[in-house]
Design goal:
Chain B: GO terms for molecular function: ATP binding; hydrolase activity; protein serine/threonine kinase activity. The complex is a heterodimer of chains A (335) and B (221). By secondary structure, chain A is of the alpha/beta class. Chain A has helices at 42-64, 83-99, 109-121, 157-167, 176-184, 205-220, 226-252, 267-280, 289-292, 296-308, and strands at residues 3-8, 13-20, 23-26, 29-31, 73-79, 104-108, 127-131, 136-142, 145-151, 197-198, 201-202, 256-260, 283-286. The two termini of chain A are 22 Å apart. Chain B has helices at residues 35-58, 87-98, 102-122, 160-177, 182-195, 200-215; strands at 2-6, 10-17, 20-27, 66-70, 75-79, 84-86, 125-126, 135-138, 146-148, 155-156. A five-stranded antiparallel beta sheet of chain B has the order 1-2-3-5-4, covered by helices on one side. Chain B is of the alpha+beta class and 221 residues long. Classes of the chains: A alpha/beta (335), B alpha+beta (221).
Chain lengths: 335, 221
């Protein structure tokens, strides 16, 4: 029996989760929410994490009904992510590791998403679509690495949605993407937008510039409502994502898809992916906001897998890095 | 006509066309996307594919011959490249059978691919989806008789930036599908430089830029 605690703080969510051999004992989270029209800046986000770290940690221990001495390994997000929030969270992890005298492991954030998704859904060897505010990747496992088959060549899909939400001055509570999704449900009139797929890669920056520039005029003239534009944006970017996922599946001969990352809890994205997989005779696996959105349990779960195969990180190497590719990690826990 | 494969955007059937072995590529509508978007993408891609196939032929790049195009049903009837396997299958098999010596055995193939892509780019033909699944080896693989297929995402353009992205797509497809083939891509680029003498330097510096955008980009959340 191994109990792992995971500290996640690579973006605006601070999450601390506790896992015991594949069972979630606790997974509290606190999100830094900025006013409408504004994104989150590294410095303020770090302050938020610093202010809430101890409360969230206490809550995790209380919910799990365990004491620090029951924990076997401390896991934290090494990267990728924003520097200041990553470092603030890692300091907490390092401190408790020394206080409680426990081994510590640095975890790749993307691997955390994938392993949590596999655990929760039971998907065995899926093609993974990882979509969030900072990442857009199509990943498949091959010879001890999660290999990136396709990705965005500029901005992430979540970033594209968030930035359009800022144009419309939508609320950031609970998240800009969620509010776009709600408006899109009421949209009716489809506006054709630039659609850029390059092999298994996608590009969103041209599309974003186009809609950012056109939106104010289209809304003012009454030609399109904000709802229509959210609807058109979602339909277009998701169609691009489904297309590259399908290309990767055809290329790899895969018949399972797993969606992870914050954008992955969008119901319309899941619905579109469901139609695609059904037509191919494939299977779709997706999770809800508890595990799609950044959380501590996913870091604990990936760390648990690493610990199980004999990995730990020496204290002097428990650094953070803003740039940490999914395919840099050797996957020792899968055959 | 017998269905042999369902790719990402088309169904592939095999049969014959007035006595010739024929492949029918039918782009079917995707019910997950908006009808307006679906119609425009399907029309765009069937035209792009036929145009590129003609243009490649014009410049002496091996591609299947187009027999007939039916725009209304989004179907292309083209030559069936019989007695062939994909480059992907060939690399996988060579790596499996030969272990460490596979890379040196595959170098002539990589050079040949680089030469073809260089020639295409020299003539401003961008494939748009360069993967080892989209290249066939006809006859004995050792003859390096490569036939390029699947031009649905292709277009004509002279910008070095876009050619750089085309190479980037190929590099990523090669390295993710076939682990430990970095050396092959280097060989491929050398041949590319030879075949596209005028434009190669600028394209490769753009390739480096695009790589930086992908690999070194900070990723949050």
């Amino acid at each position: 029996m191994v109990i792992a605690i995971g500290f996640e703080g690579s973006a605006n969510k601070l999450g601390i989760g506790i896992m015991k051999d594949g069972v979630v004992l606790a997974n509290p989270r606190h999100t830094y929410i900025t006013p409408p029209g504004q994104g989150f800046l590294p410095r303020d986000t770090a302050k938020h994490h610093q202010a809430h770290a101890l409360d969230v940690l206490q809550k995790a221990l209380d919910e799990a009904k365990i004491k620090p001495e029951d924990i076997d390994v401390i896991c934290y997000t090494k990267g990728p992510g924003m520097g200041a929030p990553l470092v603030s969270t890692a300091i907490v992890a390092r401190t408790v590791a020394q206080l409680w005298q426990k081994p510590i492991i640095g975890v790749n954030h993307c691997i955390g998403h994938i392993e949590m998704g596999r655990l929760i859904t039971g998907a065995d060897n899926p093609t993974v679509l990882y979509v969030s505010g900072g990442n857009t990747q199509v990943i498949a496992y091959l010879e001890h690495r999660y290999r990136i088959f396709g990705e965005t060549i500029d901005i992430a899909v979540g970033n594209c949605l968030d930035r359009f939400a800022r144009v419309l001055k939508l609320s950031n509570d609970p998240s800009p993407g969620y509010n776009i999704e709600q408006l899109a449900k009421k949209g009716k009139k489809f506006l054709e937008l630039p659609y850029t797929v390059k092999g298994m890669d996608v590009s969103f920056s041209g599309l974003l510039s186009y809609i950012e520039e056109k939106a104010p005029g289209l809304i003012e003239s009454g030609e399109y409502t904000p709802e229509d534009l959210c609807f058109s944006l979602q339909e277009t970017v998701f169609a691009m994502l489904i297309e590259i996922t399908e290309r990767a599946m055809a290329h790899c001969g895969s018949d399972e898809v797993l969606i992870v990352g914050g954008v992955g809890c969008n119901q319309r994205l899941q619905e579109m992916m469901g139609i695609m997989t059904e037509e191919r005779g494939a299977k779709l696996y997706a999770t809800d906001d508890r595990f799609c959105i950044d959380n501590g349990a996913m870091i604990a779960q990936a760390g648990w897998e690493m610990f199980r195969t004999g990995q730990t990180t020496p204290l002097q190497e428990t650094t953070c890095t803003q740039r940490f590719r999914t395919d840099e990690v050797e996957v020792t826990w899968r055959s | 006509m017998k269905l042999i494969k369902q790719g990402a955007e088309a169904k592939i059937y095999r049969g014959d066309f007035y006595g010739r072995p024929c492949i029918l590529k039918e782009r079917f509508s995707k019910s997950y996307r908006q009808p307006a978007l679906d119609r425009s993408l399907t029309a765009q891609r069937i035209k792009a594919e036929v145009r590129a196939l003609f243009r490649c032929r014009l410049h002496g790049i091996s591609v299947p011959t187009v027999y007939f195009v039916d725009i209304d049903s989004s179907c292309i009837y083209m030559e069936d490249i019989t007695d062939s396997c994909t480059v992907r299958e060939y690399i996988v098999q060579t790596q499996k059978e030969n272990g460490d010596s596979a890379i040196s055995q595959l170098k002539p193939l990589a050079a040949k691919i680089g030469g073809i892509v260089g020639k295409m780019h020299g003539n401003n033909i961008l494939h748009g989806d360069l993967t080892t699944s989209n290249m066939l080896l006809r006859g004995s693989p050792l003859d390096l008789n490569i036939v390029m297929i699947d031009f649905g995402l292709s277009y004509f353009d002279s910008l070095a930036e876009n050619k750089g992205v085309d190479l980037y797509v190929l590099e990523r497809a090669l390295l993710s599908t076939h682990p430990n083939t970095e050396e092959l891509f280097t060989t491929l680029l050398e041949a590319y430089k030879q075949a596209n003498k005028k434009g190669a330097a600028e394209v490769i510096s753009k390739l480096d830029e695009v790589r930086m955008r992908g690999r070194k980009r900070t990723m949050v959340g």
